[in-house]
Specification:
By secondary structure, the chain is mainly α. The chain has a domain at about 45-140: Orthogonal Bundle (Helix Hairpins), CATH 1.10.287.850. Helices cover about 60% and strands about 0% of the residues. It contains two helices and no strands. The protein has helices at about 45-70, 85-140. Helix 1 packs antiparallel against helix 2. The longest helix is centred in the C-terminal third of the chain and has 58 residues, at about 85-140. Residues about 10-35 have low confidence and may be disordered.
Length: about 140
Amino acid sequence: MAGEDAPLPFPLPTTSSAPAVPGLPGPLGEGTYGGGGAGGKFRVSPDELAGLINQWEDLRTDLQTAWDQSQVMVGVRGPGTEQASGTMAKAANTSGGAYQEHNQAMRVYADGYIKKLRAALNNYTRNEQASQDLIDKVKRNT
């Protein structure tokens, strides 16, 4: 169903250069992110996460372009007025409609995944800033 969290049809990159920090709810911590459910864990650095966001935004743009170009797939008219022309046009329009429904579901999924990736990056950035603020405060008081 559109908008539901579902596992990705491909593995997400992992990195060994950014070890997971237990209990940290950001991209360097272990947790579930994106559309995957249990077992959908991955580790990325903030720069890698920003790159993933860009890749998903590019995918969403490609999906929108495909949607725009698919309009002709639901406006098919038969070449004649006989039954065969009407039947073929109806079949083509039905197929085009199914394509558009699938495309819409993929765009909704991509939008949701981008939001989750951005939330993870923002969470990491907030945690990093809070840690830096605390370090700065300790340095000022010593």
